[in-house]
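User: For a reading group we're discussing how well predicted structures match intuition. Take Methyltransferase domain-containing protein. Before you show the prediction, I'll give you the sequence so everyone sees exactly what went in.
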Amino acid sequence: MQNVELYSKNNNCQKSASRKFYNYFGDLLKAEFKNQEISLIDVGSGCGTILSEVTVGESGLKFAKIFGVDKSEKMVNFASETYGSDLMSFRYMDVIDKIPDDLMSEQFDMVTSFYCLHHVRDLKKAFETINGLLAVNGLFGCVFFTWHTFITAWDALTEKYPVMSNWRNRFTPLFAVDNPDEIIKNNLSESGFEIVKFIDDRNEFYNFSVPENMAKTLDAINPFFTSMSEEEQKQFSKDQMSKIFELQKSESLVEPFRVIYFVARKTKTCC
Ligand SMILES: C[S@@+](CC[C@H](N)C(=O)[O-])C[C@H]1O[C@@H](n2cnc3c(N)ncnc32)[C@H](O)[C@@H]1O
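Assistant: Thanks. Here is the predicted 3D structure of Methyltransferase domain-containing protein, as structure tokens, for the group to look at:
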């Protein structure tokens, strides 16, 4: 899984996207929930920093209780130790597995999932789980990363780094298609959701300032990075940046990538 130490220090790109989510949809969410204290479950909450700093700290929404769930025990432990409180608790859950009984009986007002579902192969199953967590009329807010040049760069490096040879199997099949927007919309509709607002940003960018920041951000989400020796890690980091710059035909650190943002409403219980 991911490197919790590295990710907890190198998630500014993801943090920027979650801020954009609330810039896009914050007013809509405030109008929906008014002054209600929301029960929230955040799927793929990772180290908990973004949930704590952005969703709780900056969104302007009020919360009654929050669960952060993640399939990485290391992430759950880090988040619990760092951000656990009476309001917010963290626990293990895989979004493609059966929902634990106690969470199933909760029926949450809102589910968020930021920069997580690109790790999931069975998108429909994930949406069905999220449907099962929500009350009817509850809202699902998502930031879904769908493309960046590193994808082609990693493909090109698989020969030199055999440990990465099947790396795509650990990520969404949407990396291989041109129409992730249509696929996401269809899966939402088949899983009992109606789209409230959908933004397909093909010109997303984040200013990494220096190549090292981009490299560390990518290393932190690379599930194979920890299987490499320290020497190999250093070399891979350098090679991936050279390949990205070669593919971009520039050493720009603000090249556009693609991220989909949406809010969808559960209109019916799907399954
Ligand atoms: C890039 S991190 C994003 C974390 C956090 N949402 C954020 O924005 O910082 C993706 C997280 O999704 C989790 N994840 C991946 N697949 C998952 C699954 N099937 N069920 C639950 N969590 C999952 C990973 O363990 C990881 O912590």
